[in-house]
Amino acid sequence: MEITLESPLDMHLHLRDGDMLKLTAPLSADFAGAVIMPNLVPPVTTPQMMVAYAERVQAALGGAAFTPYMTLFFTALDEAALLAAKGTPGFFGFKLYPAGITTNSEGGVANLRDADRTLHLMEEMGIPLLVHGESHGFVMDREQEFLAVYRDLATRFPKLTISMEHITTAAAVRLLDEFPNLCATVTLQHLIITLDDVAGGMLQPHLFCKPIAKRPEDRDALLGAVLGGHPRIMFGSDSAPHPRHRKESCGCAAGVFTAPLALPKLAEIFAAAGAADKLQGFVSGNACRIYGLHPAAKTVVLQDTPMAVPAAYRSYGQTVIPMDAGKQIAWSIK
Ligand code: DOR
Ligand code: ZN
After folding, report:
1. What integer pLDDT is reported at residue 103 of this predicted model?
2. Neighbours of 149 (CB within 10 A)
3. Is 4 helix (H, G, I), strand (E, B) or coil?
4. Residue 304 Cα, ligand 1 centroid: separation in angstroms?
5. Which residues of the chain have pLDDT under 50?
6. Which residues are CB-neighbours of 313 under 8 A, at least 6 positions away?
7. Is there a contact between 265 and 324 (Cβ–Cβ < 8 Å)?
8. Which pLDDT belongs to residue 61?
């Protein structure tokens, strides 16, 4: 059996910088393009920084057919700054992090009300807002607690396109029904694992990410929505590489590296559920419709021939361990 995908997109991807970028960019380029996260050190906050980063991404891609849709790290900006961002080639939208909520987010928003004027201008200019939606509460409740913020934003800025990034709960899926201006991304790992896979037995650092994987009923709600072809849920891998020594250490960095296996693993999941016809919408169609994207043509054929996931990816002095390292996936890219 085969599944042919046209211009698959990853709507949430971390590529990092320097030698790590050189390692991860080619490994992430099965897709036609991806929305590139700005949480570098220091974060990508200005159009100049974004253009320079996009050039480093292009150089690391080494000619691969792949469009980076660049984001800026959200800060309160005035109209002139927003116009400058919007007019910068390659700019896609802003990523808002609550201050200190995850990797390199210390410069994020401490008080959302300070962002009102900027959000109002973004709404008028048609600039999307991508949000890491977690509170500072108990780790299992952080996303659910943040839903009140999404509700408030979606109500007060009804024309602003707000993407709830990497949702992990049944409650977040339900919230989509309440507000047409909300959409969401879902990662690969959150369609597969629960907290049990992370911490139910021996601790699995390579499955530790933020938001943390939740309960079986949450995972099943995500799967049900995605396999059912929910029109406002998009694939966003949140593939988030960290050096091996930062994962297998006392103080494990959050992030699961999935980019090189994402499409085969998605094919396996969708085919096993008899929902292969829903994959195109999830990995491209929904995003194109929601954001008005016209990605370059790129055809990816997936086949039900197994692939072995490498035990590690190594180059440029970097070592990264992927999800499912050393395991087999029933599908592969032809
Ligand atoms: O697990 C995560 N890793 N969650 C995030 O929000 C950030 C990401 C990273 O940059 O490593
Ligand atoms: Zn992320």
Report:
1. 86
2. 15
3. strand
4. 31
5. none
6. 23, 27, 257, 260, 319, 320, 321, 322
7. yes
8. 98
The rounded Å distance from CA 189 to ligand 1 centre is 13
pLDDT of residue 330: 98
Q: Check if the beta carbon of residue 140 is closer than 8 Å to that of residue 99.
A: no
Q: Distance between CA 44 and CA 35 in Å, rounded?
A: 14
Tokens describing residue 323: 């999800």
Contact (Cβ atoms closer than 8 angstroms) between residue 37 and residue 54: no
- How far CA 175 is from CA of 178, 187, 192, 236, in Å, comes to 5, 18, 21, 18
Per-residue CA distances from 289 to 162, 187, 211, 232, 260 (Å) = 14, 19, 26, 9, 25
Which ligand 1 atom is at minimum distance from the Cα of 209?
Answer: 1
Evaluate whether 190 touches 224 at the Cβ level (below 8 Å).
no
- Residues flanking ligand 1, CB < 6 Å: 14, 39, 102-103, 132, 209-210, 240, 254-255
304 DSSP 8-state letter:
S
Token reading at 212: 């943390």
The pair of structure tokens assigned to 171 is: 């409650």
* Burial label, 310 (beta-carbon count in 10 A; 0-12, 13-18, 19+): middle
Structure-block tokens of residue 283: 């990995």
Report DSSP letters for 21-51, one per residue. HHHHHHHTTTSSEEEEP---SS---SHHHHH
The pLDDT of residue 29: 97
| Catalytic residue status for 196 | no
Residue 64, phi then psi, degrees to nearest 5:
-60, 145
Contact 119, 157 (CB under 8 A): yes
Both tokens of residue 120? Answer: 């109002």
Q: Which of 140, 20, 122 is nearest to 72 (CA)?
A: 122
Alpha-helix runs per DSSP H in the chain? 18-27, 47-61, 79-86, 116-125, 142-156, 170-175, 195-199, 216-227, 244-247, 262-272, 279-280, 286-291
* The model's pTM: 0.98
